[in-house]
Amino acid sequence: MNLRLFAAAATAAAFVMANPAQAALVTLDFESDPSGALAEGFSSTDYAGLALYTDLGAGLELLNGIAEGDGNSLVVQNDTNGNFLKGVFSDGPHTFLSMDFGNDDPFFTNPGDRAVLTVFLGAAMVGQTFVIMNRNDVMDQTIGFNFGSFDSFTLAFTDGAGSVFTGGGAVNVGLIEVIDNITFDVPDTVVPEPATWAMMILGFAGTGALMRRRRGIALT
Ligand SMILES: [Ca+2]
Ligand SMILES: [Ca+2]
Ligand SMILES: [Ca+2]
Ligand SMILES: [Ca+2]
Questions:
Q1: What residues contact 39, with CB distance under 8 A and at least 6 apart?
Q2: For 12-61, how does the pLDDT look when each residue is reduced to its tens digit (9 = 90+)?
């Protein structure tokens, strides 16, 4: 092994030590899906392992070009019930989840109203986080967390006490969730072990050295 190859291997080892195995993240932006009403259990063409539902069993839509969204965005109708989004993963547990939310409409909210993200493993609730809406009717806030293992989630707009809007008042009669850019870890991502990385780097470096020799280029 010449000095250059040794340096490459040492660099690879340092990289692996500084970056422990980390699952890749995927983001569903729904730009490849046709807009319009969606059936319960809808999956984006970008990712088959996540099925989307509403709590009330109707009202899921993909709307394009609304000011409260980002291109094609998920919408959970409507304004007069306590409906909210549910997501169910069929590809095993995940540990990270985030999404953007909009339609935090100042005319249909009170100060302190929240977006609430709850995660479940089977039937057990295993985590929850919330973000207080900035109430500008623009999709400019993100809610997310590194949870323990979970395989389903709900995202709901709620009042300041965390209760879903269920109707009956002049405000908070119900608020349509607009959601986009759902991001999560891909559990099946195969991250090479450090030893594999080192062998790959050595393999690439070796190929380079061979090609340089064949071309008669001197190694320095
Ligand atoms: Ca989008
Ligand atoms: Ca709602
Ligand atoms: Ca609005
Ligand atoms: Ca906002």
A1: 60
A2: 444 444 444 567 999 999 999 999 999 999 999 999 999 999 999 999 99
* Terminal Cα-to-Cα distance of the chain (whole angstroms): 13
Beta bridge partners of 61: 37, 75
Nearest ligand to the CA of 103 is 3
Residue 115 Cα to ligand 2 middle (Å): 10
Q: Which two tokens stand for residue 206?
A: 């070796």
Q: What is the mean pLDDT of residues 73-91?
A: 93
- The tokens for 36 are 């319009």
> How far is CA 148 from each of CA 91, 143, 154, 164, 204, rounded to the nearest angstrom?
16, 16, 15, 24, 37
The two three-digit tokens of residue 51, written as one number: 């099925």
pTM of this prediction?
Answer: 0.75
